[in-house]
Amino acid sequence: MKEVGYMILAIILIILFIPAMIVGTAKRGQVKVDSGEGIDISGSVIVGDENKEEKSKEEESKEKDNKDKLNIGKDEEPCIKVFIHSENKTVYMPLEEYIRGVLCGEMPAEFEVEALKAQAVAARTYAVTRMKEFGSKGCQRGEDADICTDSTHCQAWISKEKRMESWGALNGQKYWDKVTKAINDTKGQILTFDSVPVMYPLYFSTSSGKTENSEDIFKSNEPYLKSVVSPYEKEAPKFASKVTFTTNDFIKKFADSQYKIKLDKSNIKSQVKVLSRTEGGSVKSIKVGSSTLSGTSVRSILKLNSANFTIEFGKNDVTLSVSGYGHGVGMSQWGANGMAKQGKNYKEILKHYYKGTDIKTIKDVYGSKAK
Ligand SMILES: [Zn+2]
């Protein structure tokens, strides 16, 4: 049963990961391997790319620079098989190189460097706990892959080329160096709970001022995913939002949903009632017509920023006031940035959002299995 719970958790969290990922400005769906960068650093090879062009001298020297900057190849380190879903090929690359691409896709580089470091450790933990080298099953999307770049399945990842393009000439190098620093300063570090790597280092964009217990949102009870206060993110653009539907549209949304709920326009207020809320403040269960739904289901039906909402019924319309953005479980990215602005370091940020965890290195945890 626990395994089924994990599977359900995995599916739901993948769906709900999307908004957290949108906080980054990465243009997803266009992710592509940077042929001058992702290849052959520390002996990485592309699997399934027969037509690799020879690199120019300029590209080679650029690679050397990057290699030095990321401390790759100075000592042996694990490599990860990344399935680039948009190109249908698997690339074998140093783990830290991969994490840099995830960081570029997951968090705005404008954020404080301590927040970026916290995000790097969370992303690295997610990656390591999917790697076959460390006893996991990998990702089934690509043949023999550990992980894929489809944000709806594993983690978002963006190449240097694409990221620099969207950052623009003015800020590109500055942001690239900042992200690289966040990777170097946390190199090899992952989150553990009871000395075991954390399997679900979840994160999301913006909380309502409090995060959620995992069991309230995903059914799976993880000791390190517990509701905590998140006080420093009121400046986040999606901290509060409002959505108004005409009463007809509101009724239609539920009629068209998989639940096919019938609502009567004449007395709609009496047919929709919040029954319970989570510790973090989200709607846990809500009566809609003759059905009882989760807040997460209503969020999905009405495409709300989160499941933390209140409802007001007007004469001919329905307004939902929504707090936060994302599933609310684990680390709030805007909250992490707020904590960093308050002078907290990445370890303090991680230990705040992931209760009872420690930060260890891959070598500490996997010993001789880690190269
Ligand atoms: Zn995947």
How would you characterize this protein structure?
This protein is α+β, with helices and mostly antiparallel strands. The protein has two domains: 2-205 and 335-369, no CATH class; 240-323, no CATH class. Helices cover 35% and strands 18% of the residues. A hairpin with a 3-residue loop joins strand 12 (309-313) and strand 13. Helix 4 (113-128) packs across helix 9 and helix 4 (113-128) packs across helix 10. The longest helix has 25 residues, at 160-184. It is elongated. It starts with a helix and ends in a 5-residue tail after the last helix. 44% of the residues are buried. The model is unreliable at 13-55 (pLDDT under 50). Zinc ion is lined by residues 139, 141, 147-148, 150, 153-154.
Number of domains: 2
> Between the first and last Cα atoms, what is the distance in angstroms?
35 Å
Tell me the structural class: alpha+beta
Taking Cα atoms only, what radius of gyration do you get, to the nearest Å? 22 Å
Strand content: 15-25%
Shape: elongated
Mean pLDDT figure: 84
Order of helices and strands: HEHEEHHEHEEEHEHEEEHEEEHHEH
Task: Characterize this entry briefly.
The protein is of the alpha+beta class and 371 residues long. It has 11 helices and 15 strands. The strands form 5 sheets. Strands 1-3-2-4 form a 4-stranded mixed β-sheet. Strands 6-5-15 form a 3-stranded antiparallel β-sheet.
Entry keywords:
371 residues, alpha+beta, 4-stranded mixed beta sheet, binds zinc ion
